[in-house]
Amino acid sequence: MTTGEPPTTPRLLAVAHGTRNRTGQRQVRHLVERVRARRPGLEVDVAYLDVQEPRLEEVVTSTDRPTVAVPLLLAAGYHVHTDIPTAVAANAQVLVSRPLGPDSALAALLVDGLREVASLEPTDGVVVAAAGSRDPRAQRDVETVAGYLDGLVPGPVRAAYVTAAQPSVPQAVTAMRADGARRVLVAAYLLADGWFYRALQGVGADGVTSPLAARPELVDLVLARYDERAGGHEGPGGAT
């Protein structure tokens, strides 16, 4: 007797940005492996938008079965609104879920990371550090998560960016200190290790959290995004 997911269950295709950093590659790979282990019988694959192979376009072109692409992205910028819809447009078998962020669950994971760095006090400032995007929609998503986090920690919270948007992370750290923060902690709103994460090590903060892919609870959010979209797989393709 066959067990696991029914034959008609759509495949989960995790869509990551891609990185040249070996540690970051391993973190994303382990995240996908944990998703696969959490739901035995569900086919789980991965594709990349840049740098790594296989590229999303190649996977979509060769796909001949129902698939839900889950963007492992923390904000809805250019990749979510343009790159991914363009890549899947020609294949009605592939639907796209919402990206991982923004979500209050991500703020909860940031709190867990902060508590591993320090015992949080009202005098501690927290900077939510994202990669950065010129797309105002992505910036609003980061600010939304910073707002969620503001309700979970005792001190002030600000959103900041490594590149492409303002304020920069060093500017936010400096502003927090000027406003009287005894310590400034950086909550890395980044999926995995790489250039953006390494840039946070030199911003003058008193501590930096680990990337989110390392947190086991992220699996729940990936599967939640898949389940939302898999239930309506007979609808049109494209991001929701």
From TrEMBL:
* Any GO molecular function: lyase activity
- Species, as recorded: Thermasporomyces composti
Entry-linked Pfam families: CbiX
SUPFAM superfamilies this protein is in? Answer: Chelatase (SSF53800)
Which residue windows are coiled coil? Answer: none
What are the UniProt keywords, alphabetically? Answer: Lyase, Metal-binding
Protein name (database record): Sirohydrochlorin ferrochelatase
